Amino acid sequence: MRVSKFLAATSLIAAPLMGIAAAQGADDCSNAQPISGLGTFAFDNTGATNGGPSGCGNIGDDVWWSWTAPSTTDYQVSTCGNASWDTVLAVFSSCSTEITCNDDACGLQSTVSWSAMAGSTYLIRGGSYSGNSSGVGSIEITAGGGGSGGCANPAIGPDVIVGGLPGISNYGATGGMAGYSLGTTSCNVGDAELLWISNSNQHPVIGQNIYRIDGGRFEQIGQSWLKHGFTALQQGLCCNCNSSGTGTRLGVGCSDPYSSGLNGSQSGLGPRFQVNAFTGAFSYPFAQQGQTGDRVFKRIQVANDDIDPSLNPSATYWGESQYIAPDDALAGNGFNNVSYVPLSRPGSTTNGAWRLNIGGATVREQPAIYAWSATTPTAAIEEINVPGEGQFVAGSNVIDNGDGTWTYNYAIFNNNSDFSGESFTVPLGSNVTVTNPGMSFPLYHSGEPYTNLDWTPTVTATDITWNTQSYVVNQDANALRWGTTYSYWFTADAAPEAKSGVLGLFKPGNPGAQVFPTEGPGTGGGTLVIQNYCTAVPNSSGQTSTMIASNVDLTLRTMDLEAVNLTQNAFGYFLASLTQGFIPNAGGSQGNLCLAGDIGRGVGGGILFSGPTGAFDTLVDLDQIPSPTGMTSAMSGDRWHFQAWHRDSVLGFATSNFSDGVWVQFP
User: Fold this and answer.
1) Which CATH architecture describes the domain 377-520?
2) Side-chain-facing half-sphere of 168: CA atoms under 13 Å
3) Is the domain 529-665 a CATH 1.10.10 member?
4) pLDDT of 339-368, one tens digit each?
């Protein structure tokens, strides 16, 4: 932590009722500097360090503030006009949970907006893109969207976004399916009025989705039909509203609320298949207009088992909504129409269905797949922009199973591509064994014509591919259509490395398969792999002990194991386990135990002595690796973890320490 300094801000003029403060910000989230109220807050991020990953941009040289919302409304933080270098901003609900972020909103400066709850504390993080620049600047905190006569930095033309997801209706269950609907408040953040003409094809349609994150996997578990807009109110959730004076147009900077009850009103819900999300065109009157049905008809349908707390004890849930409007799409503003919100699960039921409630602030202008990277540090997100057409967003998350295998999880969200997705391919490294390939998708229902057939996985020596039926075979195949997310997964015996994923498109006239960065298996179990892991604590010599595994001879069934940088003249021994772990100060030691599960002691012959060199080594018989139940053999495909324990001394008191760990993947 560097020494905090304060900058004079006497030259900063605040708007009426808005405070002025000079606050540099803290270098660490855990020690975020408290600020309060609205106004301008100066900072200097020179010499600041990097506080970790972010959902957009790579924030470097960042500083942190802790700020409590004075009321329940929307707030904006901006560096627009307040810095001369490339800034990035983000807002967090905790040090590990990002709500929203922005890189370039106004040139190289940034603006973030979010829906806040009165009395809730939020963490504001400001820095530079990839740590490439730093200096003096300021952030401005305002209520609403800021600006005068509309939104600050409006898009050209009408631009509808989901400004808030304020409520959810729980309708109960029918046939094992639960019905829900989400309330939505739209905002026109463009510089022109948005058409909202009922009984025509010149109004927005509103889709709603529900997602689950569980065990590191992101899945869409439900979708609704589309609410057709009928009247635009002229309110000011996001920005200063310039009323259109009529319900047939949403004014510049204005917002329009639709309650969850309205969005769940079955007679006004139309199918998705009649909408081209990229052009915004749709049929009117729409299919099954005016029709109603049971509790789940046309509403967000989720399998009740997917919410059941006993079946999904650690799952988190997320709601998402998307507006599609013809004039918004025509203006080229159809890429920011999706927002999401966390959902809470109280554990109670309504008419046999598990309840869901709104669980936090709306994250604007991002699909729910970004909740994956915001809550899972190992998840990565990539945008796929189809030339001349729509957009997909792909995510990946690889989980080390600790047994020589990794689980590869993928998800692809179709934002607004009418071409849709037909196939998904992940390249494989050499000698990779793939097991348990799977996929999931939200079911079409209530009369949508698309099939709900699983995609077929095909594994070859070079890749794994999932395919649906081609357009020629079935125009109503279960393609990855707009407003939906499909998830894919498999297990492999190879660690991840950078790969190029391939998304094949479905409808004719498309520009061809889209290639994008992702993670995939590298070299598989057919090759010997040795890798150090875990962090050692310095011992009394001032060094960190290091493991070395070498000279693996699969014919003689032997390998060399060595620990270096130990305390001199210390006793110790080697440990082994098939399971990786991390336990600080295990057994009263000052070091970290990097193993778990069934741990064997005395690998290679029992107690060893480091002598004046501060090292000991042994020849390991690969058929005589100790375990709590006796000797065992290293088998093909096994991943064994090794570590050294040794005596140590601190200020004359005898204690112990550990080396780092090393794992060996046997071919």
Assistant:
1) Sandwich (2.60)
2) 30
3) no
4) 999 999 999 999 999 999 999 999 999 999
